[in-house]
Amino acid sequence: MHKIIKILTVIVTLLIIAGAVYYWYFYIYVSSTPTTTENQNPTTGFIPFDRDIPASSGQDAGDSNNGNTTSASNVQTTAPLPILRLLSATPVGGYGASTTASTTVVRWVDRGRGNIYEARGDRLDITTISNTLLPRVYESWWNKNDTSFVGQYLSDKGDEITTVIANIQKRVAPTPAKTGTSTSVMTETIQNQQVTGTIYELKGKVVSGNIIAVASSPKRDRILVINNDNGRAIGYVSNFDGSKQTQLFDLPFTQLVAEWPEENTIAITTKAGANYSGYLYFVNVKTGVLTQILGNMPGLATKVSKDAIRVLYSSATKDTNMTKTIIYEINTGKSTEMIFRTFADKCVWSSKFKEEVYCALPSKITTGIYPDDWYLGKVSFIDDIWLLNSTTGQIHRVSKLLSQANQLIDVFNIELDTNGDFLYFMNKNNLSLWSLDLVSSN
Prior knowledge:
globular, 12% helix, single chain, four-stranded antiparallel beta sheet
């Protein structure tokens, strides 16, 4: 009996000693040993390079070299901005870019739901500005501050176009939630339930008339709308909110597109078709006088320079089923065919240097009926961005889109911000929206 008691005593003593050693090693020695971010991670034991620890983990992603820490919610805003940036992977129904004292801001409308989003040129954040439902918007023209736009959307059946003037306004609602990191987020109580949404909403009105074309002025403080009135194109100019509307012209054709390149000049071009002769007219905004600039050219599409003295145009060549690109000097009547081939729809004139024009050039244009096949989506192109000096004829490539984006981009709806620092465009393949930092790319 005494022997059994002695054995049990020894076992208990050994267990106590083992427990003491275990406690000392794991809870005192290890916890007091210094660690670095190279060998510590709250879940796996190490922090991989260029990864952020989720904010929900209660940890900050820090720099182990200098001891400074940056919260996970701010890592995105301090990271280097890509030169070519995908702003929206989902289809976009038009956009507008404005320049502030510190950066460039671009806003766009989601084609599916109608949400308004915003991106800045100095941050990676994408902010939801408005959650107001305005679905199926396929095109929009924005004012100078991107606080209002004229938009066109399709009916449920897709066979009727409605035009609206929409304003982004602050909602009349309770104070924004204190926990939100974005000033565009708010929490309100609806039927005893907390609902989170934006502090902005869309308010507007439907514009009457069968509107076939819209263009905003260079300062984006006025708008041109063209109505189809019994087979005649009636052009009206007004303030951006639709006030002070006056009739400017009355034309006997309705298949046209409009551009407002210079304050006193509106450009009207007949819609391009390979089997139809195209014409370009200038309308004097002050007098309404109509002047023909180009005419009798098949498949004519145009882009007019910001001073309205040059025209880049593309037209069809029936003998080869291709297209050609030409710079036309209005004052001298001189035409110069470019060494490259592209469509005028893929070009935009610079506002910083008026003799320069940015164009998306297809790597290859196969034989087809142009521009019809491209408009109808029968063909798609792989584009790069090039800069052309229309005076010297010099060109150089600004961006290899395929290698930078790692996807095929067929550029259309191409524009510049006010300062000419950022180039914006959409991909015809999926209606995504992109920005290109011209300052960094140069």
